[in-house]
Amino acid sequence: DVLARGLLTGKYDKKARFGENDTRSKARYFTGSCLDSGLQIVKRLERIGLRHHKTPAQVAIKWALGKSFINCVLIGNKHVSQVTENIDVFEWSLTQEDRNELEDGIRDTSE
User: Fold this and answer.
1) 50 Cβ neighbours under 8 A, 6+ residues apart
2) Residues 11-35: pLDDT tens digits?
3) I need a surface site. Which of 49, 75, 107, 109 has the fewest CB within 10 A?
4) What is the rounded distance in angstroms from the CA atom of residue 18 to the CA atom of residue 25?
């Protein structure tokens, strides 16, 4: 899941709580050290997004589309505005510096 069940959109923090029937209430992305690591990555996505005037979600999607080992990027959209936002990832590019910053962050959180 490219957006880690929504975590990488930047909409959630450590205080995020979900209803009992919401599968995110049990998702590993929203618990313990995995949540901490995800929030560190969100900070990098936000910084990169500011440079390009893009959302954290757009940066995450753009990064995934640029990886040769990823054949398909599936994104769940609940609203038409999310579809419009996500389509915009084809109109700009990440720099090598952006990719390095993000990948360094991913590496740092996985150690």
Assistant:
1) none
2) 998 888 888 888 888 888 888 888 9
3) 107
4) 5
Structure token digits, residue 99: 């990719």
**Could you count the other beta carbons within 10 Å of the beta carbon of residue 49?**
20
Question: Encoding tokens for residue 43?
Answer: 């900070």
The one-letter amino acid at 41: I
Determine the Cα angle at 75 with ends 42 and 56, to 5°. Answer: 20
DSSP string over the chain: -TTGGGGGGT---TT----TTSGGGG-GGGSHHHHHHHHHHHHHHHHHHHHHT--HHHHHHHHHHT-TT--------SSHHHHHHHHGGGG----HHHHHHHHHHHHHHH-
